[in-house]
Amino acid sequence: MRNATMNTSAGPDEQASPTATIRPEEAAHFGKLAAQWWDPKGSSAMLHRLNPVRLRFIRDAIDAHFGADSRHVRPLAGRRALDVGCGAGLLCEPLARLGAAVTGVDAAAENIAAASAHAAAGGLSIDYRCGEIGALGLSGYDLVTSMEVIEHVADKPAFIAALVQTLAPDGLMVLSTPNRTAQSKWLMIEAAERIGMVPRGTHHWDDFITPAELAILLQDAGLQVGQPMGIAWSPMKGLHLSDDLALNYILTVRHA
């Protein structure tokens, strides 16, 4: 369940350059999936099932953080939103429809091309950029999201530091990622990848991060971490928000 990746850059002698956070092979892997990203029955089918669950959490978090009316169809009107690791725009487009001026960042040029074409076809104006998040000089965003990305980065503290630089002082960040448990290893890798629900090679279980580990990294970066909520799966409900964090979890973050 991967949203996307960002590019790596910066040579060893470029001391002023940001730390590269994404492995090039990850960007290549997800770039190859770009053509099917918007096909709900294609290689990104699991993301299409996951996206409404994430959006439900994000909408509740927006209403709580900004004091928005839950009945308002455009709670992000007048605000700026950034999705880091945006893939072909599965989350960027709903955020734009919620009223935000949206920027999407991804490593793979193929994903940015697919995202731009799909947004244009839908009449949406979204600023898509290809590159390493720490090198783009982005800042002042009211909402920063990064869904199923941190488990793919090579340097998690550096990635979090780059996210912090993009967040406005009173902004809201939302992160989601798989938990490193026996359940996630079995369901997301042994089962989902083996039967083709997720492209093979998408996940590396050793790179998953637990809620406690992530909380420490975020707190060390000067952030206040909200109570995580699980994204669980059952035969009856499919993917759904839950108190069970064993498979996947999502949480809010803000400046302390």
UniProtKB/TrEMBL annotation:
Region annotation (Disordered) ranges: 1-20
Pathway in which this enzyme or protein is active: Cofactor biosynthesis; ubiquinone biosynthesis
GO molecular function: 2-polyprenyl-6-hydroxyphenol methylase activity; 3-demethylubiquinol 3-O-methyltransferase activity
Keyword Transferase: yes
Record-level GO BP terms: methylation
InterPro entries from the UniProt entry: SAM-dependent_MTases_sf, UbiG_MeTrfase
Keyword line: Methyltransferase, S-adenosyl-L-methionine, Transferase, Ubiquinone biosynthesis
Lineage: superkingdom: Bacteria
EC number from the UniProt entry: 2.1.1.222, 2.1.1.64
Residues annotated as binding S-adenosyl-L-methionine: 54, 85, 106, 147
Stored Pfam families: Methyltransf_23
Record field: catalytic activity: a 3-(all-trans-polyprenyl)benzene-1,2-diol + S-adenosyl-L-methionine = a 2-methoxy-6-(all-trans-polyprenyl)phenol + S-adenosyl-L-homocysteine + H(+); a 3-demethylubiquinol + S-adenosyl-L-methionine = a ubiquinol + S-adenosyl-L-homocysteine + H(+)
Top EC class of this enzyme: transferase
Function: O-methyltransferase that catalyzes the 2 O-methylation steps in the ubiquinone biosynthetic pathway.
Family: Belongs to the methyltransferase superfamily. UbiG/COQ3 family.
Protein name: Ubiquinone biosynthesis O-methyltransferase
Organism, scientific name: Novosphingobium ovatum
